[in-house]
Amino acid sequence: MLANKGVSRYPKFNQDRTRYPDFVDGKPVVDLDSGKFQKIWHGPQHAGITGNMALELILSGDEVYDCKTRVGYLHRGFEKLMERRTFIQNFPVVCRIAVPEPAFNEYLYASVIEELSGIRIPELAEWIRTFNLELMRLASYLMWLGGIAGSVGHGTIYQWTTTHRDYILDLFEEMTGGRIYHMYMIPGGVRAPLPDGFKGRTLKVLNLCENILNDIEKVVLNNVVFKQRTVDLGIITPDMIDRYGVTGPNARTAGVKRDIRKDEPYGVYDQLDFEMITDTKSDAYNRTVCRYLEMHQCIDLLRQMLSRMPKSGPFFTELPNVLHWKIPEGETYTKAECTRGEYGYLAVTDGSKYLRRIYVRGPSYTHAIAVLEKLAIGTNIADIPGLAVSLHTYPPEIER
Fold first, then answer.
1. For the residues of 123-155, what is the DSSP string, one character each?
2. I want to staple 103 with a disulfide (CB 3.0 to 4.6 A). Which of 118, 136, 165, 395 is the partner?
3. What residue spans of 231-274 are helical by DSSP H?
4. Is-contact 2 277, C-beta < 8 A?
């Protein structure tokens, strides 16, 4: 059994600010010329999890006194690009907003277009879409799990999880023709049904992933060093959830039962058997355990869908000529539960061939800026990577 045990190096982590006498309105007053502090930059560097942004840190010794998240190293203006392209031309664009998890962008963009244009998709397409999203969730979590282990010096785990994520990317390549950017879920359904023999090959990969997860539990989650580095690190308290817009595992680990898949089911989630995974303290260790358990849940959901998915039927609804497609005037917001929490698309149309406005709501924005800046204060600089990765953010989702 997993247990949150270990000697914490943060007995009053981020709560006792009496050590900092120079706070005004909750903000530290820093005089760099005093010789008591120094400013350093953590990042930017590349690795897709938290690398394409920088943290401006004010240190007193090796303790973080203040933290500011600095973005701007990756900005590509996705929303404005989408407003200047036809509806069908946006599919190569949306999947790049969250590189490790493009399927959720495809699904949400397709959903807003379908809702505004009154398109209903076939039952088989709903099953395939939901299957695609859960397979993507498992691949994304594998990438993240290697990242959190690597952030505290356990690089072997990153090799394990990357290998098994590649097995899943092989399945995506077989299903969609692309390993990373799939452009598979389009308005009206999906581009193709699942290939022959796909079920057996998927079950084999799921068994491999389940086995490696069991090994990771022994090597990482029950590792005293990992616990010492993560227990009581970056505690998100229940009163922060609504104030800071915390969603997903970061919120559920604090005891808040919110999961769009259960609260407002989409796809075929209302036909699947699963429960929310929650805890009572959202620190870096429990957030890791929560996501680890959700990976096992992903495997179970994928097996459920493979056993119950219709074996035949239409997978696509015919569309008008997409080169001259005009969608009626309207406005809508659709959302889904991605690995990081609530992910949503707000779209406004004016009856022309182009979107009037589109806005992407990603959980990384609040987690990587407001939440991280608060939790970093009082942390040892060596634990900044583990804290940042434990919040599971994607800079491209912020820099859209």
1. HHHHHHHHHHHHHHHHHHHHHHHHHHHHHTT-H
2. 136
3. 240-244, 249-252, 260-263
4. no
User: What are 142's two structure tokens?
Assistant: 């594998």
Alpha carbon distance 145, 148 (integer Å): 5
Structure tokens at 336: 């889904």
Residues carrying CATH 1.10.645.10, the chain: 78-398
- Tokens 């939440």 belong to which residue? 371
Distance between CA atoms of residues 231 and 233, nearest Å: 5
- By the 8 A CB rule, do 164 and 206 touch? no
Exposed/middle/buried for residue 165 (C-beta within 10 Å: 0-12, 13-18, 19+): buried
| Cα 258 from Cα 13, distance rounded (Å) | 26
Name the token pair of 8: 């914490």
Contact 52, 395 (CB under 8 A): yes
Do the beta carbons of residue 359 and residue 126 sit within 8 Å?
A: no
Give the homologous superfamily in CATH for domain 78-398.
Cytochrome-c3 Hydrogenase, chain B (1.10.645.10)
Q: Closest Cα to residue 109, out of 191, 183, 192? A: 183
- The CA distance from 223 to 251, in Å, is 24
For the chain, give me the number of helices (H) and strands (E)? Answer: 15, 10
Euclidean distance between CA atoms 173 and 322, whole angstroms: 25
Contact 144, 291 (CB under 8 A): yes
* pLDDT tens-digit profile, the chain (400 residues): 454 444 444 434 344 444 444 666 666 677 666 767 888 888 777 654 555 788 999 888 888 988 999 888 777 788 999 999 999 899 888 988 888 889 999 999 999 999 999 999 999 999 999 999 999 999 999 999 999 998 888 889 999 999 999 999 999 999 999 888 888 999 999 999 999 999 999 999 999 999 999 999 999 999 999 999 999 999 999 999 999 999 999 999 999 999 999 999 999 999 999 999 999 999 999 999 999 999 999 999 999 999 999 999 999 998 888 888 899 999 999 999 999 999 999 999 999 999 999 999 989 889 999 999 999 988 999 999 899 999 998 888 888 7
Q: Dihedrals φ, ψ of 337, to 5°?
A: -95, 100
